[in-house]
Amino acid sequence: MSVERPLPEPVDTLVLKPAGSLVLGGDLGGTSTRIVIADHEGNVVGRGAAAGGNPISHPASAAANFGQALRAAAEGVDPAAVKAAVIGAAGGSALARPDVRAQFDAAWYGAGLTVEPEFIGDIEVAFASGTPEADGTVLIAGTGCAAGLVRDRKLVRTADGHGWLLGDDGSGFWLGREAVRSLLLAFDLGEPLGLLQDAVLQQLLPDHDPAVIARREGYDIVRDELIREVNRRPPVLLAELARTVVSAYGQGDQTAQALVKRAAELLTATVGRIRTTKDNTPLVLAGSVAGEQSPVGLLLRETFHQRFDGEILTARDGVSGATWLALGVLDPTLATRSNHTRLVS
C-alpha cells in the first residue's frame, strides 16, 4: 500500500534570505544614539542606546557613543547574522571625511558587525518612521529645521536645513533667538518687560538684581550682561528657550503668540518651496517644534490641511523607521505595511 506524500513547496515561495538573517537600524542624533536589531519579520531582538552621535560637532565622542550603543544592542545576538543595516544620522555629511568615517567604521566593526552599513540622512529616516509610502514630503522642526522631498524612499530635494547661522527659520533655535531679541528691543525702547521677556531674562541671568531693572539706567547694565552671557554660550543653546516661548504662549503672552505664529508661517513657506499644492502624497511632520503638543505644530497642521492635499502624519521613532528601511535592503518584499506597523507603532 503506497503512502501519498505531499509535494515539495515550490522554489519561488521559499524565503530568499536565511531564516536567521537580522537587520539593524540606527538613529544618530544630537542628544542620543539609538540602535535596534530585528529579525526578518520585524521582531526586535536587541536594543542599545548611548549619548549623542552627531558626527559633526564631536566626532570622536559620537563614534564612541555609536560603538557603545551597538555593543549593547548586539548583546546576546550574533552580530555576523546582521545582513543589512541602515543608519540615519543628523550631520551625516561629516562621514564623508575619511578621518571621521574611520572612527565610525572602527566602532562598527569593533562591535563584531560584518555587513557594510548604509548611512542616510535623518530626513529619510523621519519620513520612513511616519509612513510606509515610498513618496512624500517631510518637515523636521526641532533645534534646527529642514524639509525634504522623498521619492522611492530616497531624498531628492531639500529646503532650508542651512544651520542656525544661515537658516533654520522657524526652528527651536529661531524661537529662542527671537525671544532674546524681543528682550533686547524692550531694553532699547525702555519699555516694561512682558511675561516672555521676563522669563527669558530669568533663564539667562538668574542672579540678576531686579532692583537694577526697576531703574531706567539699569536697563543698559542688564542688557550688556545679557549680551555677554548669550555670546559666552554655544549659539545652539538658544534653542532651549523654545520651551520658554511655548510656556509664555500658553499663558497668553502676546509676544510669544506672535513668535509662534511667525514660526509656523516660516516653516510653511519652507515646505512650499518643494511641495506643490496638487501633491497628494503624505506629509510627515517630525521634531519637537512640529510635534502634536506644540502650538507651532498645531498651527502647521491646520495650515497644511488648508493648503496641501494628502494625509498629514506625525513621525514616530526614527530608529524604528531606519530598521524598517533595513528590512527593505535585506529583501524589498519585507518592507510591508504590517512590518512597518509592528516596528513603528
Automatic annotation (TrEMBL):
Domain ATPase BadF/BadG/BcrA/BcrD type: from-to ranges: 24-321
Keyword terms of this UniProt record:
Kinase, Transferase
- Which Pfam family, any one, appears in the UniProt record? BcrAD_BadFG
One of the record's GO molecular function terms = kinase activity
Recorded hits in InterPro entries, A to Z, give: ATPase_BadF (IPR002731), ATPase_NBD (IPR043129), Euk-type_GlcNAc_Kinase (IPR052519)
Q: Which domain of life is it from?
A: Bacteria
Is this entry keyworded Iron?
Answer: no
Please give the name of this protein: ATPase
Q: Which organism is it from?
A: Kribbella sandramycini
